[in-house]
Design brief:
The complex is a heterodimer of chains A (315) and B (316). Chain A is mainly alpha-helical and 315 residues long. In chain A, 69% of the residues lie in helices and 3% in strands. Residues 1-6 of chain A have low confidence and may be disordered. Chain B starts with a helix and ends in a 7-residue tail after the last helix. The chains are: A mainly alpha (315), B mainly alpha (316). The interface between A and B is large, with 43 and 55 residues.
């Protein structure tokens, strides 16, 4: 009753009305402040969160933050040291390093996020359903996963990149091929995790209860069990994001990513090697950018694990 | 143990099948037919040659028949010839394996030499300066891209200080000390990165062991702290570390592509990388398959060793 308030008398009757729902902006603010409160429990997580907010801010704000066209060459201003005009100096073709870093980061982070999201979208239902049904579906499903896991290190990506090159794909298409390779490679981990959690959850009472009420298997698996296994998935996905960024950077460092002149931390770093002795700063910035990004995801993921699974935080 | 081993070996079969299908499918997914590639190297682009070549290589047969045929040849280590060097691919790959094994093994040994003392010390002196240093270093090691770390090492030790060669390879059987010079930088780059993972692991499993009751008992019996740590806890705590190091070694055998190309190390990863640049598709196919098999078998061996070391694990 206390949540309702007597508003006014209409025709002698009291009209009870629910208080107006808080505006959406305030609800969002509450959610954010709750999340922040939780994050404060772990120092690593809060440092990681701040770093990530800055990173995503830079990615979203790139067009406004960048001072120069990242591709435009300017031979009069080659290999300059950091100055007021070029905040981080210029590279061998006179391009503004600061602007290239921003655009390259935007691209890299987008690729990583899309790839990890895709691996979740494919891997989690795969794992949940095979785990829930068990039997033959499970056996076949897990053998496929094992087969995918058998691909060592970079090799799966190398195969995909070779195919992309052989088809003479360009621009976004190369990124798409890369994203699908990364998603395919990330899928087994998610599927396994989801399956393992489902096997544990399947035994619990609430699943039994749903079944007794007559819910269908698929809806139990997806709507009842899935929400309960989200926290390990979030943690592994965050850590995986850092890992994916390292892989994408390594591939373009090898010259197997998007070809120049697209701004890219990996290929910029590789190109800077020739000027390493005379202008080490050019190679330093993309490397630092990669470190910062990966570190941000790792710190956030680590801290998140401690918060979500307090038993591990003791260690 | 025997039954378990046999079952695990039986489980390898489907995994290897998936691997071969994927690798075979890779060549099928290439644009144009294999014929174009063959004609490119053997010359003469006319209908007649095409037909003869198609017959000779069995390209007029349906996919599943070709796969079966390819599989039979592959099992006999007959991968055909490299399109670039014209030498048999199996020979090309065999000659590259020792360099990769050399680099990966030394790299992992370095990693364990860093990780085990550092992780143990961090756990024993928890929340001390050593502990924080270990944690920060391992976080850095996980976050720094290995290729960047490698070129920074080259910059410092080769270009500025001039102590070590920046790249190259000498076989340890020809000139052991000379080969070490070339080995130090790439092995250190591997060791640093892998140690980042294992230091954390050693620390956390050591903390886990130290909190167990048998440690209290040992202390109550008056054993010195040194004995408690070195004789009892460390042995148990080492099991996960050794297991993970084994898995890391398996993965490195299959994927030091980046470091091998930075340091011009003539390993199998670099062979595949070069094959990609030269569009030597049969070599890529065979290389990936061989590395995949090595990784699968190594993983199995590590798993079996783990169970030997740790009899408490059930043979489920």
């Amino acid at each position: 009753m206390s949540e309702l308030e007597a508003d006014k008398l209409v025709d002698g009757a009291i009209v009870w009305r629910a208080p107006p729902a808080p505006p959406r902006s305030r609800r969002l603010a509450t959610a954010l402040s709750n999340a922040w409160h939780e994050l404060r429990k772990s120092r690593t997580a809060s440092i990681g969160a701040v770093m990530l907010v800055l990173l995503f801010g830079a990615c979203i704000g790139t067009p406004w933050l960048a001072t120069h066209d990242p591709i435009k060459q300017n031979y009069r201003e080659r290999l300059q040291s950091p100055s007021e005009k070029h905040l981080l100096g210029t590279d061998r073709l006179g391009r503004d390093i600061y602007s290239r870093l921003l655009y390259g980061g935007r691209r890299l982070v987008t690729i990583a996020v899309v790839a990890v999201a895709l691996s979740l979208v494919v891997g989690v239902p795969f794992g949940v359903l095979t785990g829930y049904y068990g039997g033959l579906a499970d056996t076949i499903g897990m053998r496929i996963v094992d087969g995918l896991l058998a691909f060592p290190g970079l090799l799966l990506y190398l195969l995909f990149v070779t195919i992309a090159q052989a088809w003479k794909l360009e621009g976004v298409m190369i990124d798409l091929v890369l994203v699908s390779a990364l998603a395919l490679a990330g899928m087994p981990e998610k599927a396994r995790l989801a399956r393992g959690s489902v096997l544990a959850e399947k035994q619990k009472e609430y699943v039994e209860a749903s079944r007794a009420v007559g819910d269908s298997s698929v809806s139990i698996a997806l709507s009842q069990i899935l929400p309960n296994i989200i926290s390990p998935l979030i943690v592994t996905s965050t850590v995986r994001l850092g890992f994916v960024i390292l892989i994408v950077a390594a591939l373009s460092f090898l010259g197997l990513g998007t070809p120049p002149p697209t701004p890219d931390w990996g290929s910029d770093l590789s190109a800077a090697r020739d000027y390493m002795e005379t202008h080490p700063l050019i190679a330093a910035f993309p490397g630092l950018a990669i470190c910062y990004t990966v570190l941000a995801f790792n710190l956030f993921g680590d801290g998140l694990r401690d918060i979500l699974d307090p038993r591990l935080a003791e260690r | 143990m025997l039954a378990y081993t046999l079952r695990r070996i039986a489980q390898l079969v489907p995994v290897l099948l998936v691997l071969t299908v994927a690798v075979f499918g890779f060549v099928e997914a290439l644009p144009g037919s294999v014929l174009d590639t063959l004609i490119g190297t053997e010359g003469g682009d006319d209908a007649e040659t095409r037909e003869i070549l198609a017959k000779e290589y069995g390209l007029d047969r349906p996919v599943h028949e070709r796969y079966a045929k390819w599989l039979v040849r592959t099992v006999q280590f007959d991968f055909g010839n490299s399109l670039v060097t014209r030498r048999p691919i199996s020979l090309e790959l065999m000659s590259r394996i020792p360099a990769t094994v050399y680099l990966a093994t030394v790299g992992i040994m370095l990693s364990m030499m860093i990780a085990i003392p550092l992780g143990t010390l961090a756990a024993v002196r928890r929340n001390s300066a050593v502990d924080y240093t270990a944690q920060v270093t391992s976080l850095a090691g996980i976050s720094i891209p290995e290729f960047w770390f490698a070129i920074l090492c080259v910059l410092l030790f080769s270009l500025y200080l001039g102590w070590l060669p920046s790249s190259g390879y000498v076989s340890p059987f020809e000139d052991f000390w000379g080969s070490l010079q070339f080995l130090i930088l790439p092995a250190a780059a591997i060791g640093f990165r892998q140690a980042a993972f294992t230091t954390r692991l050693t620390r956390s499993s050591m903390l886990d062991e130290l909190s167990k009751e048998y440690v209290d008992t040992a202390r109550a019996l008056g054993h010195s702290e040194r004995k408690v740590i070195f004789k009892y806890t460390l042995r148990n705590a080492m099991i996960p570390t050794i297991t993970i190091s084994g898995l890391q070694l398996a993965n490195l055998l299959g994927g030091t592509v980046v470091l091998e190309s930075i340091f011009a190390w003539p390993g199998i990863g670099r062979a595949i990388f070069e094959a990609i640049l030269q569009r030597d598709y049969p070599l890529i196919q065979a290389g990936v398959l061989v590395l995949g098999c090595i990784v699968v078998v190594m993983n199995l061996l590590v798993d079996l060793t783990y169970r030997l070391l740790n009899p408490r694990v059930k043979f489920a």
